[in-house]
Amino acid sequence: MKLVATFFGVGYLRPAPGTWGSLAALPVAYAILSFGGFWLLLNLTFFVFVSGWIATREVTRGQVDHDPDYIVIDEVAGQWVALFPVGYGAMMMSVELWQLYPGWIAAFLLFRLFDIWKPWLVGKADARNDPLGVMVDDVIAGVFAAIGVIALAALFHMVLM
Length: 161
Prior knowledge:
- By secondary structure, the protein is an all-alpha fold.
- 76% of the residues lie in helices and 0% in strands.
- It is globular.
């Protein structure tokens, strides 16, 4: 279970294991999108969420700390959610994934911002102090980041048009 919770050991990297987890999620998402497109990423995100929830529950069973820093599978799920607009946009516009590199950068930076800052619903989910809260706060941070990616893309395209 620790292998899943740490995303194959990435959670042991220092400093800032959450950032390492988010960074590790990027090339994996790129490979998934390249191989199977947006719908595969969507399905695997759901799978990672459920697997992460189970792994987090097992790894933290009996511990006081509900969210040890070495658990980064939540960052993977949240980062992939933040990348949904990029993957969907590439699919809809029939463009290569690398061409949407500003979206990749924005998704990463915005996700890290919301994951660290924990505004509103992100903080409420984190305050659950249980394995579901560990996973859900990052998914909500990913949703906020995805909305930011969409807003930035719209702004960028309006400015250029």
